[in-house]
């Protein structure tokens, strides 16, 4: 998978999802790490390692302030 650039409806850059091995990681607009998704266990974690939920919920992390 190539990097997946995330933009809003006006084309403004929101962040990027990068694949590292089997894990997907999301980074915000300023490059800060926001969390990761592990497809082997089908769970998403925030930047502190707290489980957010099941499935790929990475884009939800763009809207949270932690």
Describe this structure in words.
The protein has 66 residues and is mainly β. The chain has strands at residues 4-7, 13-20, 23-28, 33-38, 43-46, 51-54. A 6-stranded antiparallel β-sheet has the order 1-2-3-4-5-6, with no helix packed on it.
Helix content percent band:
under 10%
Average predicted local confidence, pLDDT: 94
Silhouette = globular
Strand residue content: over 45%
Q: How many strands, what sense, and barrel or not for the largest sheet? A: 6 strands, antiparallel
Biggest sheet: strands side by side, in what order? 1-2-3-4-5-6
**Uncertain residue ranges:** none
SSE order, one letter for each helix or strand: EEEEEE
> Measured on Cα atoms, how large is the radius of gyration?
11 Å
Question: How many H/I helices?
Answer: 0
* Strand element count: 6
Structural class: mainly beta
Task: Outline the fold blueprint.
Layout: E1 4-7, E2 13-20, E3 23-28, E4 33-38, E5 43-46, E6 51-54
Antiparallel strand pairs: 1-2, 2-3, 3-4, 4-5, 5-6
In short:
The chain is mainly β and 66 residues long. Helix content is 0%, strand content 48%. The protein is built from no helices and six strands.
Write out key terms for the chains shown.
66 residues, 6 strands
